[in-house]
Design goal:
8-stranded mixed beta sheet; alpha/beta; 15 helices
Amino acid sequence: MTKQEAEKYISDIPRFADKTGPENTRKLMEILGNPERDAKTVHIAGTDGKGSVAKMMSLMLEESGYKTGLFVSPHLVDINERISINGVNISDEDFGRIFDVVKDASDKLVEAGGSHPAYFEFLFAMGAVYFSEQKADYVVYETGMGGRLDATNCIQPCMTAITRIGFDHTQYLGDTIEEIAGEKAGIIKKGVPVVYFTGKTSANKVIEHVAREKGCPAFNAYWTEIIINSTEQGKIDFSLDNRYYTYNNLILNNGAVYQTRNASESVYMFDRLFHDMDIAEKSDIIHRALARFSMPGRFQYLKNNVILDGAHNPDACEEFVKALKKQYGNLRKLTVKLIFAVSSDKDYEKLIETLSSGIAPDMVYVTELESGRRLDSKVAGELFAKALGDKAEIVYSKSCAEAYKTAMENLQDEELLIITGSLYMAGEVLKIQ
């Protein structure tokens, strides 16, 4: 099947297939010959930061000389982004070919009385088949929204990690930090080391309890001191120091201070996974990997005065605002313009409150996602108008592309344009770059 036909089929899955459980995934993988077992794996869950940690970890493995697969979600521009080896996305030809393999297996699963794989489950199976076929040494898997019931949870990793925990997907994961942490901690396997940096004491207690029950070495990356040496637009020089190691003058070509926390966790993972490696060699690998790190849609400079960030829940939004203040100081001394769109199932009231108080934009372009889950721009606009009063002008549009075009046409060099509220909007904006 062609890539285009395969993508359409996968996109249509939510319309005809129900959500499935881990047992269904295991049956599917058995039909495929358990390709997820053919490489060493690293498994990462969390509310925020897991995509960045996964990317950093994959770069360190790649810089160590390993053929490294990376499975992430969501994609921003092209579905092929979800499956890559050593930074190269799966080709359209391979995507269509691997789709046929998994489609054949899913048909056999249904014939045997199983359920048709769900959207994410189907893509995970495709990734596992591709990584096996390409003989990857390591594969880094990012979970979807959860952990315990996630399709990726059928792997047997050599390292697990849990990133920052916050309120997102509460309709599925629970209404408390403890409940959400419990779902994420579901990836912890018996005897397998877990590194965590949740940002929440209550979440840490849940993870530590599960780790004790399963006899897992547990490492809290929070206790690593992060020293910011210098920051400039799009670049951070920092050092990491804890009882195991000190790594000085690490460079991230990303302006978001929150990425140093993600770097700290990924370094901790790599250091523990390769604890016998010569320290000088390890330091060199870490320096090279982090210097190569880039993550579209996360504090991404589209121009010198245009920043795109896919923050879509309250914790991520607060971290984004902190990063902006670290870069620019008092934002109220600048003319700040904001493009905002969000999914209706997010805590959009809290997002708008955080952006209004933290950034206090002078103009807000409220727009809508190309999605059935989009929040009506009028609803968002009214909330911004209430929060900002007469200070800000509210401009409405039904299209992210239209909002971006209008904002760019009217943006002055001394003004700052911020685009945030959704990773899906980040993808829509990147498509028109």
